[in-house]
Amino acid sequence: MTVYLDNNATTIVDPQVFTAMEPYFVQKYGNPNSLHAFASETHPAIKQGMERIYAGINANREDSVVITSCATESNNWVLKSVYFEYVLTGKKNHIMVSEVEHPSVIATAKWIESMGCKVTYLPINNEGIVDVQAVRDNITDKTALVSVMWANNETGAIFPVEEIGDICEEHDVLFHTDAVQAIGKFPVDVQSFNVDYLTFSAHKFHGPKGVGALYVKKGKELMPLLHGGAQMGGYRSGTLNVPGIVGMGAAMEAAVEALDFEMTNIREMRDNFEDELLKIDDTFVVTPRAKRTPNTILISFRGIEGESMLWDLNHGGIGASTGSACASEDLEANSVMEAIGAAEDLAHTAIRFSLSRYTTQEELDHTLAVVKKAVARLREISSSFAYAPEGHVSGLTEGH
Ligand code: PLP
Predict the structure, then answer these.
(1) Residue 364 pLDDT greater than 90, yes or no
(2) Distance (Å) from CA 8 to ligand 1 centroid
């Protein structure tokens, strides 16, 4: 049996999404900007795709949703746009990002910092949640942008973006949130709180890879990214990714329809699975369940290197993760565990299981059996487990 539990890295394309996209490869392949029927036959699908995307996040018609190639691009774009529009022009010289943002935000913030802008890296508390007080304490009239993700990809921790949005509004500061791990996990409504820019990516909610989006609230600045044929309102030129737009639209609609299922059934399956995992000795979970996306568990097995556990899981047909997909090729400690201040030995032991609406109970039962076997085998040969300190571990929910 094979089990895919790495849905925070990417998801299977919903077969209905694939079916919706298919005609736009070899049948209706016209360039939407051309002046003939091959072009115009793509228009209804583009319109429908865009309408579904707008509806999925409850964007206003006057707002912009720009289709990008991925969330990495959307995140880069917002920060770099702020750099060019505010920092380089001397209007403002400070941005804030949480210290556990995805690398596409952190690395861009570091680049901006290297260009002379002040960057505050907001800390997270021992539950893995960004500290709102730090936003209040550090915001000044020189702050151009705050960028804080809605849900963390490692722990699933949901960040208080409504409160942060309010603080930004009070201080007339732009607010961006990376909602990649939020879409399809809980309702995302851009009109329900103050947010100027919001990033998402189709492949995280059963859509195709290579299609992301950036929501931009009406009237908010955005530097054009790609100059050329003036597609996407002139913000991002280039021939439209027709199948991608169709796929993202269909995936968005399906994700919204499946929200109740995700928030009840998947949550329940996750919780039961987590209860079973926590029955294993010396296991620790970050972030209380109520403050997490319904599908995610980041769990430490004391004394077991995350990579060794992945090896055994993979051997048992299970795909999980030790860290964010982009960073998991190097053997570094899990960055969120480090930010929480977990002891060095635990920071290397985190495994992330992320479920989806395609996950079955049978798969979780199989996974549990493989995990138990792996724990027994790996602890047997682990030198660190034998010497691991006993007792309370700050910030982590302890199993038995
Ligand atoms: N932001 C978060 C929170 C993510 O989890 C990811 C993917 O791992 C990204 C951004 C990057 O997404 P993409 O693969 O679309 O560039």
Answers:
(1) yes
(2) 9
